[in-house]
Amino acid sequence: MIAALFAGGLALAAPPEVVELGRGYTHLYALVGEGVVIVDTGYPGDDVAVLKGLADAGIPEDKVTAIVITHAHSDHTGGAAALAARLQVPVLMGAGDVPDAAAGVNAEAAPTSARAAFMSRFFPETYGAFAATALSAPLSLAEYGVEAMVTPVGGHTEGSLLVTAGTTLLVGDLIRGGVVRRAAPRLHYYQLDTAAAHAAVAAALSPEITAVLPAHGGPLSPDAVRRFLGG
Ligand SMILES: [Zn+2]
After folding, report:
1. From the CA of 183, how far away is ligand 1's center (Å)?
2. C-alpha 3 to ligand 1 mean position (Å)
3. CATH code at position 201
4. Cα separations (Å) of 94 from 45, 135, 176, 218?
């Protein structure tokens, strides 16, 4: 991998490789550059799956520099406390969800259908509590050795965030992929503010983006997402 390109004395680091860790209900990713940033940690107990995913990808644990959590729901936060303790790295979250993580409880989830309201009883209500660094403005992950941007946007939850890694856009639960037709964008089961969630994805979907990765289903093509958001 080319770590950096030097042009006129200015170091232009390459965007990270996006590696999927494991194959559960929630997609878990590692952004691999000079450092490694983990994006989402699955259900409680999925810290094991994350560590196995790192090992399977040949990524040494001591290369991990930070953990980003897209929002405080237990299918994303579940492994964070255990991983932060083991890897001794900070956890970054949107400011609005940090109090929920500190209490080990889910951020408010507003169902978008009767089916979603029924499904919510199957999600763990608690997870290992952890202290997170609160983001209230976009942050470059360059200080963690990864050329990517984290942007808190709200929408799905108060503190939901998305991640731009080169030409890849990781949208967490702001939208999802289909259950059967995984490449088809869908309204997520829970949205605190659907219009805000969708506007945030639209704003982040710059012409350079070639792949949109939701935390469930996908991957999605940018054009399919544009059609979904516009329709
Ligand atoms: Zn989720």
Report:
1. 17
2. 32
3. 3.60.15.10
4. 23, 5, 19, 23
